[in-house]
Amino acid sequence: MLTSKVDYQIIASICKVALMRRLSIVAEYVESAEQRDALKSLGVDYMQGYFIGKPQLLASLVADGATTGKTKSLTENMAPHPTPLPQGEGTDRARLKL
């Protein structure tokens, strides 16, 4: 993302559209502090990737948070699940007639 101007512009454009539509933005594959900071500046709400945390079982994640005193931060920026799309939004297969 940060090594290609084209990639950055595509991501910035997607974020701009999402912000105009008042949608939450989730970024995947965040692997460095520089990427995190750039995505924050573009208005990204939620991030995941190896920089944020390595994949692990929920029980392990909660146990690690309890021992480090960071259990609140584990859930404060967690995307709600499931997040229903507003009526008429999204790319449902039926609407795409695939």
Compact description:
This is Cyclic di-GMP phosphodiesterase YfgF. The chain has helices spanning 5-20, 33-41, 58-68, 71-76, 93-96; strands at residues 26-27, 46-47.
Short descriptors:
globular, mainly alpha, 5 helices
Structural account:
With about 100 residues, the protein is mainly alpha-helical. The chain has one domain (about 5-75). The chain has helices at about 5-20, 35-40, 60-70, 70-75, 95, and strands at about 25, 45. The protein has a two-stranded parallel sheet. The protein is globular, with a radius of gyration of 16 Å. It starts with a helix and ends with a helix.
Instruction: Tell how many strands the DSSP assignment holds.
Output: 2
* Helix-strand sequence: HEHEHHH
Poorly predicted regions are 92-98
Helix vs. strand class: mainly alpha
Strand content: under 5%
Helical residues, percent? 40-55%
As for the number of domains, it is 1
- Ends: how far apart? 31 Å
Tally of contiguous helical segments:
5
Largest sheet: 2 strands, parallel
Mean pLDDT: 79
How large is the radius of gyration? 16 Å
Sequence of strands across the biggest β-sheet: 1-2
Shape type: globular
